[in-house]
Amino acid sequence: MHLLDAADLGYGAAPVLRGVTLHVAVGERVVLLGRSGAGKSTLLAAVRQALLDQGRRVALVPQDHALVPQLSALRNVLMGRLDDHGAVYNLATLIRPRRADRDAAMTVLDQVGLCPEADRAVETLSGGQKQRVALARALYRGGDVLVGDEPLSAVDPAQADRLAGVIRDAFPTAILALHDVDLALGFATRLIGLKHGQVLLDGAPDIPRDLIEALYAR
C-alpha cells in the first residue's frame, strides 16, 4: 500500500514532519516510536486518511478514545459499524440492539475483559476500561487495517501484552503508536522512529536498542 510520497505533514504553516514517504505491505505490523510531540499522531492521521482515500476499511483507536460518555460500553462498541447502515437501523440499534448485534458486541467486549461492564455508562469507567471500550469498538468494526494512537497506554503490562495479541489476531495489518518500547518490540514486524520532524529509523525490530533509545534523548 503506497500511502505517502514526500509529504509534509502538520497543521498550519509549519509542518510537523517533512518529506515523509511511506509504503506499508499487507500483513505488516508497524509501530511508531518517538518522544511526545515527535509527530506520531500527525503521521497516523495522514496514514488513516490515505487508507480511506484508497477505499480501505479502517478501524481506529484514537488517543482520546472518542467515546460517548453517557452511553453504555455496549452501545459505544455498536457505534463501530454505524456507517454500515442507514439512520433508522442505527437509531434502533442504539435504543434496543438486535440480538445478533448485541451478541457480536459482547464477543469483543469479552476479548478485552469488559463483559461485566457492558451496560455501564462509559463516564463511570476507569481510564483503562475506557481505552478497552475504544479497542473493542475497533474490533467490532473490523477491517483491513487497525490504526491506533497509544491504544494500550492505560492498561497494565500484562493486559497490554494480551491485548496486543488480540490485535495481532484480529487485523491482518496494523499501524500503531506505542509508548512502551518492549511492547513495541514484541508486537511489531517494523519500527518507524520519529525525531526532529523526520523519520530517523525504519526497519525490523532487531534494530540496535541504542538507536531506539536515541529517539528519546533530548
Silhouette? globular
Using only C-alpha atoms, the radius of gyration works out to 18 Å
Instruction: State the low-pLDDT regions, or none.
Output: none
Strand order of the largest sheet: 4-5-6-3-7-8
Predict the CATH topology of the largest domain.
Answer: Rossmann fold
Domain ABC transporter: 1-217
Keywords: ATP-binding, Nucleotide-binding
InterPro entries: AAA+_ATPase, ABC_transporter-like_ATP-bd, ABC_transporter-like_CS, ABC_transpr_LolD-like, P-loop_NTPase
Pfam families: ABC_tran
Task: Please give a quick description of this structure.
GO terms for molecular function: ATP binding. With about 220 residues, the protein is α/β, with parallel strands linked by helices.
Break the fold down into its secondary structure elements and pairings.
Blueprint: E1 2-11, E2 14-23, E3 29-33, H1 40-53, E4 58-61, H2 73-78, H3 87-95, H4 99-111, H5 127-141, E5 145-149, H6 157-170, E6 173-177, H7 181-187, E7 190-195, E8 198-203, H8 209-214
Parallel strand pairs: 3-6, 3-7, 4-5, 5-6
Antiparallel strand pairs: 1-2, 7-8
Helix pairs in contact: 4-5
Structural account:
Pfam families: ABC_tran. With 218 residues, the chain is α/β, with parallel strands linked by helices. The chain has two domains: 133 residues, 3-Layer(aba) Sandwich (Rossmann fold); 75 residues, no CATH class. The strands form two sheets. Strands 4-5-6-3-7-8 form a six-stranded mixed β-sheet, sandwiched between helices. The model has no long low-confidence stretch (mean pLDDT 93). It is built from eight helices and eight strands, in the order E-E-E-H-E-H-H-H-H-E-H-E-H-E-E-H. A hairpin with a 2-residue loop joins strand 7 and strand 8.
